[in-house]
Design a protein that fits this description.
The protein contains 5 helices and 5 strands; from the N terminus they run H-E-E-H-H-H-E-E-E-H. The chain is an alpha+beta fold and 136 residues long.
């Protein structure tokens, strides 16, 4: 019970982070609803309304070489009932056609049957860090 309270407190604090970009995937049976922070535009170049109108929404921004990695990660979240958090790095194509590296931390909230209820994500632009790795 203490672990559940701590996780819920952590998840609630995610939404209070002012400078980070974040979104939340809310599962409702077979349906999903995605909520984005307004600051998602800082990294993607898309405002929330434009992002929601894209075919595939945020998923359509993921670089073609990284799509399978992201799909595999999402599958693991669904299948591993004990998984509580995941970190992943991948590329997206911004609205200005620039390639941007994203590091995403996902915090999984589960129901009493250990099914995914929500996925809270915080992500950051790590392009400069990745570019410095390539140089070395």
């Amino acid at each position: 019970m203490a672990k559940e309270i701590n996780n819920n407190g952590l998840l609630n604090n995610i939404w209070k982070v002012a400078d980070d970009q974040f979104w939340c995937v809310i599962k409702k049976g077979a349906n999903e609803e995605v909520e984005y922070s307004d600051s998602v535009e800082n990294v993607t170049g898309y405002c929330v309304d434009d992002l929601k109108k894209l075919p595939g929404k945020f998923f359509s921004l993921i670089h073609e070489e990284d799509i399978q990695l992201v799909k595999d990660t999402l599958s693991k979240i669904e299948s591993d009932k004990n998984l509580e958090k995941v970190k992943i790095a991948y590329r997206i194509k911004r609205k200005d056609d620039e390639i941007c590296w994203i590091r995403e931390s996902m915090f999984i909230e589960r129901d009493t049957y250990k099914e995914v209820k929500k996925i809270h994500s915080i992500f950051a632009d790590i392009t400069e860090l990745k570019n410095s790795e390539i140089v070395f």
